[in-house]
Amino acid sequence: MEPTADLDQGARRQLPSGLTAVLLALAALLVVAIGAGVLIVRATSARPAARVQAPPAPVGPQATWAAGARPAPDFRLTDQAGRPVSIARFRGRPVIVTFIDPLCRNLCPLEARILERAWSTLPAAQRPAIVSVSVNRWGNARRYLLQDDSRWGLRSGWTWAVGPGAALARVWRSYQIGVRDVPKTIDGVTVHNIEHTEASYIVDTKGDVRALLLYPFTVADVTSAVTRYGGA
Asked: Suppose 104 and one of 44, 96, 115, 171 were both cysteines; which one would form an S-S bond, judging by CB atoms 3.0 to 4.6 Å apart?
């Protein structure tokens, strides 16, 4: 991860300190128990996934907030078409803010497909914007993003949010997302294995964070959370 500059005004609006200690610690952990839930952090490299038994999917959000209690930290990044992207851009509709490695070939595609299916299941008037903040600065080239759109079946108007490493790191910090690069050099070629918190936030139509979903989650978990918390 690149060194980070001071947070901008949007990023200063942090999420609760109780989550900070838990989520940031996950950059160095694989599994952390939180109450009855399980928070998963996995390596998201381009390598095929090892055969591991997935834990039971959690039921419902792992955290929720009252309307107006937690303004979503805003940011200024760019989408896959080079246009500015921010939370404010989607004011007036619910938003799912998620964190994906564009070069991942194991958990991230599964998570993205669940979000896509949830989007298509919801009535048109309730469908959220999906903003995916990159956790891998080496995977932000437009060709990778468009390749993922095609291979993962992202037809919902999925919006990628990419930018310089320092700008991305500010967003990770403001949303309490742990990210760690575990590089390996093979035959003189460095491969960046990214470990990160697998999390998606529900932001309501007024721009407030209302719920946190930790992967693995189901389509029903996502649609229920958007329906209940996505409105103002």
From this structure: 44
